[in-house]
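Good morning,

Attaching, inline, the backbone tokens for the sequence recovery test we're adding to the shared suite. The designed sequence is right after.
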């Protein structure tokens, strides 16, 4: 079962921020059982991220250290660097080891790609989209090898004010050749909202061989004594690209293509209270498409064309970038991106 938590976030333009980012990453890696050799590699990558932000990001950089568990329960550490600087006009050239040009981020990008177990780099210059700057994602698995899956996914989950209680819940589970997920948003935020979603991931253990609507009805009954929640329950057969899902409430979801998106609509109401009849919808997901859902802590006014080239990136970079740029500061935030791993992606 997947799990995700932001371990630390620090500005990359101050010495104290850089020290705290390094200290936090090392402490997390030791707690998760990463070897000294793995930690040294991670320190090298983090140093490259911090150095480039300090030099070229015009004082706007931030570094995030994330803890994740993949579907198989393997410990992962993600480093995510984001800035609002000038961007990289020629990203392909900047990816060469040691390459740097005046006024643009570049040095060390090739080294980051070579040292990380998984990596993605995305950049827009001024006037190219809704944002300008550079985003770099680097992932490290405990044993240096990620679990191979026929589906690619990215997660984002962050509590209001990074509180210990988060009213959003997001879980993925694999059984056989199918991928299952539950995406929830408890009403409000804080402890009571977190209690509404706590432990609900156990529903995914009963998914195989059953339809979405029946399971979501069971979740509805289990929420009767809680504050209530809105949710989306889904299943994907990655090799065939078939998706089946149902939902209740005002969560946002789309089928996203590089130039357009199609909104997916669910039954109105609130689970645990009153709602309209739960209906299941099915569709095929092509190799150039993503399924994306988010709670109302993520703004939905963006369009795929606002982020040209992003939709050929790894879904984890997509999730971290949209979570950071489109997230609201007054609510819990969660976002899920799922696609077929056989797509033509950089």
């Amino acid at each position: 079962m997947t799990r995700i938590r932001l371990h630390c976030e620090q500005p990359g333009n101050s010495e104290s921020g850089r020290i705290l980012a390094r200290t936090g990453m090392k402490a997390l890696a030791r707690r998760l059982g990463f070897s000294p050799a793995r930690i040294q590699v991670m320190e090298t990558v983090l140093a490259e991220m911090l150095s480039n932000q300090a030099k070229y990001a015009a004082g706007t950089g931030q570094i995030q250290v994330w803890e994740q568990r993949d579907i198989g329960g393997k410990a992962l550490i993600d480093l995510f660097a984001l800035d609002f600087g000038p961007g990289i006009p020629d990203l392909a050239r900047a990816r060469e080891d040691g390459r740097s040009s005046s006024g643009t981020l570049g040095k060390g990008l090739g080294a980051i790609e070579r040292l990380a177990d998984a990596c993605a780099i995305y950049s827009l210059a001024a006037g190219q989209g809704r944002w300008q700057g550079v985003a770099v994602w680097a992932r490290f698995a405990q044993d240096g090898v990620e679990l191979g899956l026929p589906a690619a996914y990215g997660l984002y989950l962050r509590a209001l004010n990074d509180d210990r209680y988060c009213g959003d819940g997001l879980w993925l589970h694999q059984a056989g050749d199918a991928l299952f997920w539950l995406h929830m948003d408890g009403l409000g935020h804080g402890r009571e909202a977190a209690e509404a979603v706590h432990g609900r991931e156990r529903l995914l253990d009963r998914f195989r061989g059953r339809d979405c609507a029946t399971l979501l009805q069971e979740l509805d009954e289990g929420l009767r004594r809680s504050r209530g929640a809105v949710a989306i329950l889904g299943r994907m057969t990655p090799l065939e690209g078939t998706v089946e899902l149902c939902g209740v409430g005002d969560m946002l979801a789309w089928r996203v293509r590089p130039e357009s998106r199609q909104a997916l609509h669910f039954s109105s109401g609130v689970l645990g209270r009153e709602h309209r009849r739960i209906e299941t919808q099915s569709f095929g997901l092509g190799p150039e498409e993503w399924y994306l859902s988010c709670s109302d802590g993520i703004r939905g006014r963006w369009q795929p064309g606002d982020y040209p080239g992003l939709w050929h990136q790894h879904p984890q970079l997509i999730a971290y970038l949209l979570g950071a740029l489109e997230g609201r500061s007054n609510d819990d935030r969660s976002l899920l991106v799922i696609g077929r791993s056989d797509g033509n992606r950089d």
